[in-house]
Design a protein that fits this description.
Order of helices and strands: HHEEEEEEEE
Strand order of the largest sheet: 1-3-6-5
Number of strands: 8
CATH superfamily: Immunoglobulins
Distance between the termini: 56 Å
Shape: elongated
Number of helices: 2
CATH topology: Immunoglobulin-like
Strand content: 35-45%
Structural class: alpha+beta
Helix content: 10-25%
Radius of gyration: 18 Å
């Protein structure tokens, strides 16, 4: 078990140390690599939410499925790993980014909101993201929607 842990740590370091003049997409990383980065505070970085952690989607017709996007940038000096993404209720299905985000690079946390079984009126929904970030590892992303007939 200790050898596996060391091999994963070495793989993460090697993957994060490569340099290239070409812009290439980041490779997907394993959950074990994400968990390791999340446990080791030496690997913590900072995240900058490009727009806001609150979005107002306005009016949505009942039954419509809406995609919600929260763009971010790694504002620190270590690779950023999104370790978990969950939603506050079953009407919202989040998508967890699988790749590592090097310093200066950005990504998007996406979710789909299904208004089908929601009551007419205003709703506020949350998406929760965990990452290897300081000062907080947990990030609450909120959106507002008004469901109409």
């Amino acid at each position: 078990m200790k050898k596996l842990f060391i091999m994963l740590a070495i793989s993460a370091v090697i993957a994060s140390c490569g340099t290239s003049d070409k812009q290439t997409p980041s490779e997907p990383i394993t959950d074990a690599q994400k968990d390791q980065a999340a446990r080791d505070t030496a690997n913590y970085t900072t995240i900058s939410w490009t727009d806001s952690t609150f979005l107002d989607l306005g009016k949505v017709k009942k039954g419509q499925i809406v995609e919600v996007s929260f763009p971010f940038t790694n504002a620190g000096d270590k690779n950023l790993f999104i370790t978990n993404v969950t939603a506050g209720c079953g009407c919202t299905v989040p998508e967890k980014p699988q790749e590592a985000f090097p310093p200066g690079k950005g990504g998007v946390i996406k979710a789909q909101f299904d208004s089908n079984n929601q009551a007419v009126g205003e709703h506020r929904k949350q998406v929760f993201a965990s990452a290897n970030t300081k000062p907080n590892r947990e990030h609450q992303l909120t959106f507002r929607v008004e469901i109409i007939e």
